[in-house]
Every structure is written in structure tokens, then in C-alpha cells.
Amino acid sequence: MTLILVSEFIVYSLDKVKDEKRLSLVVAELNKVMGAIFNGALISSEVLKEMIEVSDESNLTVREFDRIAKALLKDYEFVDSILLLPNGVASYAYPYADNIKAIGHDVLSDQNRKLGSLEVILNKEVTIIGPVQLVQNDKQAFIVRRTIRNGNEFWGLTSSVVYLESILSNIDDVLRLYGINDYDLSGYNPDSKVPYDKIISSRGIIAGDKLSDTVSVFNTKWELTISKGKSEIYIKIFVFISLLVLFLVIFTPSFRYFKKYKGSEREKLILENEAYTDYLTGLANRRGFEHRISHLDNSVTNGSVAIFDIDFFKRVNDTYGHDVGDGVLVGFANLCKMHISDSFVLSRSGGEEFILLMPLTSIEDATIQCELLKTMISKELFIVNALELTLTMSVGVAYFHDTCEMKTALTLADKALYKAKQQGRDRVCVS
Q1: How far apart, in Å, are the Cα atoms of 388 and each of 294, 306, 316, 326, 394?
Q2: Residue 102 CA, distance from chain mean position
Q3: What's the CA gap between 189 and 113, in Å, rounded?
Q4: C-alpha dihedral over 376, 378, 380, 381, to 10 degrees?
Q5: Beta bridge partners of 142
Q6: Where are the beta strands (DSSP E) in 240-317?
Q7: CB contact at 8 A, 195 and 152
Q8: What is the value of pTM for the model shown?
Q9: E strands along 264-323, which residues?
Q10: Rounded distance, CA 45 to CA 159, Å?
Q11: Is pLDDT of 233 > 70?
Q12: I need a surface site. Which of 106, 174, 373, 428 has the fewest CB within 10 A?
């Protein structure tokens, strides 16, 4: 019975290696194909940005914009529309007739576009958001956004539109090339909380074990999920016979010693991980946070730190019980993790208090990041044990010029947090 289980495990592992290799090849090809498709949209947004920055008074006439946009659409077949948004308001569009309903649309006020637009402004990078439903024609599309600045001041945004329908066949061709017929490919849209809305393409039924990987379209990440393949019966038989022979050849005590050694190594790794990890949320605990600080790269000489506190969390525990409170903490932690940079360190320091380390981040950008998180938390509906709960959080932010000032920065952030609570909660205060 043991040999059967071991052989099943080996076959499962071999299948996993094979599927992971196939998935990595698919992802690499999708990266290449999508990169070629969206390259035109990135170039067109960069051209508009440069034209604004070098033009008189950072402005374009409608005729100049139409001339430039028409040439860009001719050169890049997958770019379907180009828009220019001074101060976040759509004021120029080409083709005009296809986008007339978008004119006057303020993406910084629209709750379905605001977070994505603010993220582009904050990160100062081009971002591919979508799929989204366009206001001008209700089509599903990707919006390639880029920030334009006049010196250090925000001027506006560019939007290059790529229709979803125009790239679906390219995606399907890549998946079929590698024999994948059942898959889900999800895009990136920080303004949507509904997973179904982020689906780019979905084919077949993903049954049994799943494998996922990230498709990187420039600096934007999509998620590809496929079903794990199953080996033919003759492979299982071959592995079982091989194991049986190996078991008969190898001396039993040696085999037992090997198992014991492997078990002790695994336990050591588990204990080390538990020492630095919060058991409930999976985040770093206070010790793990300090461990990460001590191992920061030498290039990290400054940054910002924030302390979060869920407002009136004690009421949740007192009213609904600690199981619901634990569920809220897990949901809160997961939502925060989804919307912070990979270079940041998020930890739970205890109770309902969390610490966010933002290396090489100015106090201004850190404040914007915390405002975004606060807004997303207040908009989220946390569902725990059939209960629907809304939360707010208070945040204190401080800056450090060197990692040796971290203890002082944490003290200042804690004071700023206290100030936020004193001023009525649901706010970000800076020390």
C-alpha cells in the first residue's frame, strides 16, 4: 500500500514538473506575443507624452492631436483609439466619432476608474488596466495609461485603447499550440472587486488540481490558471515496478534513516518559518519584520513606515465573536497585500495593528499609498460566516533617513496614528 502511495506521489510530482515546465513555456510565449501587441499602445502613449512636454505651454491643438493620433493608429494595428486627458478629463479623442461619449469623462472622479488612474500617477509608470467596459461604446477593452507631468506638476494622462476582441485569437493560438484547452486568463483592474470582471479569456472547465503563473505584460501582471495534466496508466505501472525493485535492493534501516533525516530537516524549516510568521494572516510578525529590516539591501538608505489600526475592531470581537474577528483580520491582510508593491514589507505587529515598511519611498508617495489603501478598505465588503461587514482604518506615517532611525520612525508613526484616532479615525496622519 505504501509503495502504491509513493508511486502515486512520484507520478504526481513528475506530472507537476512537466506541467510547470509547459506552463512556463506558455507564459513566456504569451509575454512575447502580448508584448508585441501592446508595444504599439505604449509607444503611442510615450509619443503623446513627449509631444505635450515639448509643446508650447504644454498644450496641443485638436488638429495637431488628430494628426499625431491618426499616424499612430496607422502604424500600430492593435491600437484602436487614443485619448488625451488633461487633469484626468478626456478632452481629445481619435477617432472622435467612436469616442464622442467619452469626451468630458473625469477618470479621477469616476469610482470605476479612480483607483487605477491614481495608481498610474503614484507609480509614475505606464499601466495596462483591463479588461474594462468603455464608457464611449460599452466594448470590453484594455486602457494603457501613462502620466504626463509639467515639470514636477501633474498635467494629465494618456489613454491608448486596445479592444479585447482584437487580441483573443492571439491568446487562444498560443494556448492551443501547447495543447491547453481548459484555462482562465485574468487581467488587472484595481477598480473592480469582482473576479469575473477581470477575466480576459476563459475556455473549457478547469477541474481537479490547478496550476497558476503570472503573465507579465511590461510592468502589468495577469494571472493564467490551467488544469493539471494526468499521466497514462503505463507510466504509473513503470514507476511502481521501479520503486518495488529499489525497495528490495536498498537495506531497510538505511531507508528508515533517510526518512527520519528528511523529516527533521523539514521540521527545522517549519520551526524557522513559524518564528517569523503570524500564524493567522501569514504575514511577517514583529520578529519577522525586524528580521527583514536587518537584511535590507545596502542600497536601501531611506524610506517611509506606516502603522495601520482597524477602527473599532474590539466591537467586532465583542459583537460577533473572535472567529469573525479572525476572519476580518485575514481578509484585511489579504486585501492590503494585493495592493502594495513587492518591495514593501507588510507585517502584523499584534491584535488589529499592522506595520507597512516602504523602502526608498518619499513621505509624499507613502501618504498617497496609504490613502489608496484606506479608500479600498472602506469600499470593501468583508464577508465572514455569512456576515457582511465594512471597515475603516486609521494610519500614521513617518519617514526615516537611514535604517538606523527605524525605531524613532516607528515611534513617530505611532504618534501620528494616535493623532488620527484623536481626530475622528478613518484618516491618514503624517508625523
Answers
A1: 40, 27, 12, 14, 21
A2: 28
A3: 9
A4: 180
A5: 162
A6: 303-310
A7: no
A8: 0.53
A9: 303-310
A10: 7
A11: no
A12: 106
Give the angle subtended at the CA of 13 by the CAs of 9 and 16, to the nearest 5°.
Answer: 140
Cell output for 401: 533617513
- Look at residues 51, 38, 43 and name the one whose alpha carbon lies nearest to residue 130: 38
3-state secondary structure of 91: coil
Give the number of other Cβ atoms within 10 Å of residue 184's Cβ.
Answer: 20
Other beta carbons within 10 Å of 342: 6
Q: Please count the other Cβ atoms lying within 10 Å of the Cβ belonging to residue 261.
A: 10
* Cα–Cα distance for residue pair 135/113, rounded to 1 Å: 11
Q: What is the pLDDT of residues 139-151, one digit of tens each?
A: 999 999 999 988 8
The whole-angstrom separation of Cα 266 and Cα 293 is 26
Question: For residues 35 and 33, what is the distance between their CA atoms, to the nearest angstrom?
Answer: 5
Yes or no: say if 84 and 68 are a contact pair by the CB < 8 Å rule.
no
**Residue 223: CA count within 13 A, CB half-sphere:** 11
Task: Show the domains of the chain with their CATH numbers.
Answer: 2-166 (3.30.450.20), 286-430 (3.30.70.270)
Nearest alpha carbon to residue 361 among 306, 416, 429: 306
Locate 50 and state its grid cell: 513627449
Q: Which helix (H) or strand (E) holds 60?
A: none
DSSP state of 228: P
Q: What is the pLDDT of residues 76-98, one digit of tens each?
A: 999 999 999 999 999 999 999 99
* Helix axes 2-54 and 62-75, enclosed angle (nearest 10): 140
Question: What are the cell numbers at 284?
Answer: 511577517
